[in-house]
Write a structure and sequence with these properties.
The complex is a heterodimer of chains A (576) and B (115). Chain A has 14 helices and 16 strands. In chain A, helix 8 packs antiparallel against helix 9. By secondary structure, chain B is an alpha/beta fold. Chain B has 4 helices and 5 strands; from the N terminus they run βαβαβαββα. A 5-stranded parallel β-sheet of chain B has the order 2-1-3-4-5, with helices on both faces. In chain B, strand 3, helix 3 and strand 4 form a beta-alpha-beta unit. Chain B is globular, with a radius of gyration of 13 Å. Classes of the chains: A alpha+beta (576), B alpha/beta (115). Chains A and B meet through helix 8 and helix 9 of A and helix 1 of B.
């Protein structure tokens, strides 16, 4: 791959800087999968193909070469057989005169010697220049026949020697005729003609040891079968397959037979006669080991491919999931900071307002207090008790305002981590103060079952308030108007446990499993950030505690926070 | 029965004068000062046993006044008051009452100081 290719490859996997929507992660996952499959499967395929090709080449040579040698050898045997017979006939014609051979007794004697010494001869005849068979020795009555009209007669006249194709002739059985011409003084000529037994050629072909599905035979250059075949037709039938092109050496072609099976055709052209020796073998037989290997490689390839795909999919899913989680965490942390900053600003504003209000409230408090003092110390007068009640009402209202401003100031302060010795019940009561009005309006039965004598814990008041406020808010969200929310505290083996129980709608197991995930919300869009319990979880963990949720759909939910007596995690960074 | 003398220092004059009147009614002689400098002069002229000191004031703040009192009159007890929740005054400064103040709580503090 070129540099620009790599560059493109990187941009292919480009990851957005911000905002990892599910679509982007899906896209990234698909791209990684495609890329990983491409970089693993292409080399695997290439390797398998090269391997197959090389093996096939080697195997072809291994299989075809012996066949070529065999065909060549058999062709030479047939050629030698024919050449020997032709030489014998030629020798007889040279050594004996026309008259000697015209004597049938003499001819018979010679024929017998030929049969005995060389074999393969069926008959022998002497033909004069006019084509008339002058003398004949053999199994038939052919003396006196005239061959002047036969094509081979003219061939001999033209070339001096002749080897025929296999043909039926007068005897209606396949045979080969060979003839030699002798020219005597005065331009007159005669010829010696012999018939050769084709059985000897069949024997040579049979000696090639071909299996039952293979065929070996002679065919002439016109495509006429010269010997019988097992599957391709009888003698003198037309060769049904693609005729092999001329080649001076033994050669092979791959073709299909009449049934459409692939066959290997090994052949060799005769140099001195018009024959081609052909061996046809079904490829399936020859390439059995090749097919075994091919299917073997195919299965290995398939299994490898499946493993690769499985690993690629699983690995990519895992990586993208981790990436997504990390991205979500990053974003959640960012939002948490933003959220904290927002709360901090609101807190500071609230603190400023509370402080400003506290001073006039102090004046009202003192004035009303003085009025009350004066009424109490003064004598009786009309409506004294009513005035007293009124001033007391002012003092009480001031007290209410005081508790509100103190809560606001406490809320502002909790932004800065501050570890102090806390009474958990007090923290809960303070936090309940924020929500009891809502509980009253919605007629929610908010019950506090706070255990007495709990040990003081070292923790952050503000952060705990945030935790409880969030749990209360969720519980209130889950119950309908008139529902019940119970807050319990107890000491459980040295750890303080706070549980917030509601009898609301509850959660399914699936929801329960994701309840602490960032951005997971069952509320309508715009009604929840999906960060409440995530932040709560983070705070509790930071304070060294533990939070768990139990829920049953339609029954209710219990959120339990367990806090250590000392907030170890926070303690390290913040001196007490 | 004027058992002890208290100086109330607060820039909110309405608050200081009313509180002083209420303390006077409860037998605690109370004077008021609305500025730090004025308070220091009054202490010089007639040192009280207790000074009630607002933490945040224009000019001399509560902490500065406290430091000067400590230098010259370490015998005077100081109680801080503030509109802020849990202000940072340092452990050496003692208690801080949060406004609005509950009168009974204040009197209890004063009496505990006087023993």
């Amino acid at each position: 791959m070129s540099f620009s290719g790599w560059f493109n490859g990187l941009s292919f996997l480009d990851f957005p800087e911000s905002g990892g929507s599910p679509e982007i992660f899906r896209l990234l996952r698909n791209r990684i999968i495609v890329l990983m499959i491409v970089v693993t499967v292409i080399p695997l395929c290439s390797m398998a193909l090269i391997n197959l090709h090389q093996y096939r080449k080697a195997l072809s040579e291994e299989i075809v070469k012996p066949q070529l040698v065999l065909v060549n050898k058999s062709k030479h045997s047939v050629e030698l057989f024919l050449a020997e017979r032709l030489s014998t006939v030629s020798f007889i014609a040279s050594e004996h005169s026309f008259d000697e051979l015209a004597d049938e007794a003499n001819l018979r004697r010679i024929f017998n010697v030929m049969k005995r010494e060389f074999g393969g001869f069926v008959d022998l005849g002497l033909i004069d220049g006019t084509g008339l068979q002058v003398s004949y020795v053999g199994p038939y009555e052919l003396k006196g026949r005239n061959y002047a009209g036969q094509p081979w007669f003219h061939e001999v006249k033209l070339r001096g020697t002749y080897i025929s194709d296999i043909f039926m002739g007068f005897r209606r059985i396949p045979h080969i005729v060979m003839a030699v011409e002798r020219v005597i003084e005065g331009g007159k000529s005669w010829m010696l003609r012999a018939t050769i037994d084709t059985q000897r050629i069949d024997d040579i072909i049979a000696s090639m040891g071909l299996d039952s599905k293979s065929d070996g035979f002679l065919v002439n250059r016109e495509g006429i079968l010269q010997t019988a075949t097992k599957h391709l037709g009888g003698v003198l039938d037309h060769f049904p397959l693609l005729f092999p092109p001329f080649s001076s050496d033994a050669n092979f072609i791959e073709t299909t037979d009449s049934l459409g099976r692939e066959v290997l055709m090994v052949y060799s052209y005769f140099q001195t006669s018009p024959f081609v020796l052909v061996v046809v073998k079904p490829r399936g037989e020859l390439f059995r080991s090749w097919y075994t290997l091919k299917s073997g490689i195919f299965y290995v390839f398939l299994v490898s491919l499946l493993i690769i795909l499985l690993v690629v999919f699983k690995l990519t899913d895992f990586l993208v999931k981790r990436l997504k989680e990390s991205e979500e965490r990053r974003e959640a942390a960012f939002l948490e900071i933003e959220h904290s900053q927002k709360l901090s600003s609101i807190g500071r504003l609230a603190a400023g307002v509370a402080h400003e209000i506290n001073n006039p409230m102090a004046i009202i408090n003192e004035k009303a207090g003085l009025m009350k003092d004066l009424i109490e110390l003064g004598g009786d007068f009309e409506n004294r008790s009513k005035f007293l009640a009124l001033t007391q009402a002012i003092v009480d209202s001031v007290e209410r305002c005081r508790s509100i401003t103190h809560r606001l100031l406490g809320f502002a302060r909790r932004m800065e981590p501050q570890i102090e010795s806390l009474d958990i019940n007090e923290v809960i009561r303070e936090t309940v103060g924020f929500v009891e009005k809502e509980a009253r309006y919605r007629n929610i039965d908010l019950q506090l079952k706070l255990a007495d004598g709990l040990p003081a814990i070292l923790s952050d008041r503000g952060q705990l308030q945030q935790v409880f406020l969030n749990l209360f808010s969720n519980a209130f969200g889950a119950v309908g108007d008139g529902g019940a929310v119970t807050v319990c505290t107890r000491d459980l083996n040295g750890a303080i446990t706070v549980s917030v129980e509601d009898n609301g709608c509850g959660m399914s197991n699936e929801t329960l499993g994701r309840v602490f995930e960032p951005f997971f919300s069952t509320k309508k869009k715009g009604h929840g950030t999906g960060l409440g319990l995530f932040i709560t979880y983070g705070i509790v963990k930071r304070l060294g505690g533990h939070i768990e949720a139990k829920s049953q759909e339609g029954v209710g939910t219990v959120m339990t926070v367990q806090l250590p007596e000392r907030a170890e995690a926070v303690q390290k960074g913040c001196p007490i | 029965m004027k058992e002890m003398k208290v100086l109330l220092v607060d820039d909110e004059e309405e608050f200081a004068s009313t509180l002083a009147e209420r303390l006077n009614m409860r037998g605690i002689e109370s004077l008021t000062a609305s500025r730090g400098e004025e308070a220091l002069k009054m202490i010089e002229a007639d040192p009280p046993q207790v000074v009630l000191l607002d933490l945040m004031m224009p000019g001399l703040g509560g902490k500065e006044i406290f430091d000067r009192i400590r230098l010259k009159h370490p015998e005077i007890s100081v109680i801080f008051m503030s509109g802020q929740d849990a202000p940072e005054i340092g452990p050496e400064c003692g208690d801080c009452l949060i406004k609005p103040i509950k009168i009974d709580e204040l009197i209890q503090r004063i009496r505990s100081i006087s023993g």
